[in-house]
Design a protein that fits this description.
Rossmann fold; 5-stranded mixed sheet
Length: 280
């Protein structure tokens, strides 16, 4: 397999690539610059990827900005929603034709248990500036990740595509996400969260297992969510999610707001017809 690692920090990515190359001799790896907080960067990265890869088998949407004070992306969106959701929404739309050319393509969106703190985005107040709360905003973005996977898979299935969309939850994995967030906003709850995850959280390798299963297991189905069996570990299994957060009205709202904010019409049915040559 050839793996494209799309990243904002190329120095860290180069170090990660070198580590992988040492541990897996012969690994085929490629780095692409991507800042999910800039739609111009998303478009540039997508162009670079498509130029070299007309067929893509797996896309894993995984990026994290968590619990930070209010600020905006270069396009003016609240940072957590812009990076964690809108950037992925735009990237997926741009790469979809290449994914549709794969026989058994997968799109995996990484959510989090923090989604339980979120609500569907409000079209009248998408930035939440007037009533901003760092953790509610994070929860809203992580809920949008799951909603995006569920609604994207529904639209793909309705269009007759074999491409599937799923979601994965890494659980309480001890990564740089907690440390970076704590440095940004070291309130009491943030310090407690960082310390707790440091003591009892799973390793990044274990946290990646749900993503790997969602991306590679031939038995999984579109629209499903995968996570670790237990809160603090175990094998990756299918997890239930609250159906009340997946009602059609909320999914349609998430989709329309995402299209509006990214200035991108994500016409799944049209893309499927254009890619497969199916009649309208």
């Amino acid at each position: 397999a050839h793996v494209v690692i799309a990243v904002r920090n190329l120095d860290k990515a180069t170090a990660a690539r070198d580590t992988i190359a040492r541990e897996v001799p012969g690994a085929s790896l490629e780095l692409v610059a991507l800042d999910l907080g800039s739609l111009a960067s998303v478009r540039s990265a997508a162009t670079s990827i498509l130029d070299g890869h007309p067929v893509i088998d797996i896309l894993v949407n995984n990026a994290g900005v968590m619990g930070i004070p209010y600020r905006t992306t270069s396009d003016g969106f609240e940072m957590q929603f812009g990076v964690n959701h809108l950037g992925h929404f735009a990237l997926t739309a741009l790469l979809l034709p290449a994914l549709l050319r794969s026989d058994r393509g997968r799109i995996v969106s990484v959510t989090s248990s923090g989604r339980s703190q979120g609500t569907t985005v409000d079209p009248k107040d998408p930035t939440m500036e007037a009533r901003y709360d760092p953790w509610r905003s994070y929860g809203r973005a992580k809920l949008a990740n799951l909603q995006f996977a569920v609604e994207l898979d529904r639209r793909l299935a309705a269009a007759g595509a074999s491409l599937r969309a799923l979601a994965a939850d890494p659980g309480f994995s001890h990564t740089d996400l907690q440390a970076n967030s704590a440095r940004e906003h070291r309130g009491l709850s943030q310090r407690f969260f960082e310390t707790t995850v440091g003591w009892v959280g799973t390793t990044p390798a274990k946290g990646a297992l749900p993503q790997l299963r969602a991306a590679t297991d031939p038995s999984v189905r579109g629209g499903e969510l995968y996570g670790l069996r237990f809160v603090l570990g175990g094998s990756p299994v299918r997890k239930r999610y609250l159906q009340r957060s997946m009602i059609p009205r909320d999914l349609a709202t998430m989709w329309s707001v995402s299209e509006r904010d990214t200035d991108m019409r994500f016409d799944v049915d049209g893309m499927v017809r254009a890619t497969t040559g199916a009649p309208p």
